[in-house]
Amino acid sequence: MMVHEFFGYAAAVLVGLVIGLAGGGGSILTVPIFVYIFGIPTMLATSYSLFVVGTTSLIGSLNHIWKKRVDLRVTIAFAGPSFISVYLSRRYLVPALPDPLVRLGDINVPRSDAILFFFAVVMILAARAMIRDKRPSEGIAADGRPRYGSLALDGLAVGLLTGIIGAGGGFLIVPMLVLLAGLPIQRAVATSVLIIAVNSFIGFLGDLQHISLNWNFLLPFTGLSIVGIFLGMYLARYVPAQVLRKGFGWFVLAVATYMIARELL
């Protein structure tokens, strides 16, 4: 095994570790790991990311369901439209994107570069949210009456984002569950993990019609990520969540800055 591959597989444990500790966030590292460490093409990397994120998050969500932390009614309201959006975007929208995606005179921007640039912008937004750590304690649904219509619309938007970049979008889902469903932050995080899991699997199913997978690589990577989530759920008892989110936020910001610099240069 080459040195860069060793670091890549070690990063798989980190992905699961972060999801286990924070209930999300690790998924935005999978695409950069696949592209920059393992040299996997961007479009295939987003497919691999959906499988890894879906499987790892599912393990975490089973733990939350067992401990009755998940609000299944809100999950259905948010996730139903999101499932439709993520499947259609992976099945039809992403394969139909032209290559190059942008033409400006003599400048052509390949589809893969455009998606990586967009991914990096999303990472910056996620990093900003984690560094500030100003998630609301209550929102417009503080009266305990979820705004199901608004939840459905947000589900459509998050599904589209997941479909395009191959990340779960937990940094968007959690605040919406607090604001629009009136969930306490702990239940919002637990519910978000389940939504991320199913969203990712639905998107992955949309890819199976037009991709060829290297299971000899994908399954060991996913297995290490699952090891990481068990470790993360154990350490969550001892690591302050706020310290973790801010530290990880700065790390994500550094990775996103590297990605943008690399794509521009």
Automatic annotation (TrEMBL):
Membrane topology: Multi-pass membrane protein
A Pfam family that the UniProt record links to this protein: TauE
InterPro entries assigned to the protein according to its UniProt record, in alphabetical order: TM_pro_TauE-like, TSUP/Inactive_protease-like
Regions crossing the membrane: 7-29, 35-62, 74-94, 114-131, 151-179, 185-205, 217-237
Compartment(s) of residence: Cell membrane; Membrane
Principal location listed in the UniProt entry: membrane
Alphabetized UniProt keyword annotations: Cell membrane, Membrane, Transmembrane, Transmembrane helix
Family to which this protein belongs: Belongs to the 4-toluene sulfonate uptake permease (TSUP) (TC 2.A.102) family.
PANTHER family found in the cross-reference section: MEMBRANE TRANSPORTER PROTEIN MJ0441-RELATED, MEMBRANE TRANSPORTER PROTEIN YJNA-RELATED
Name recorded for this polypeptide: Probable membrane transporter protein
Species per Swiss-Prot/TrEMBL record: Fibrivirga algicola
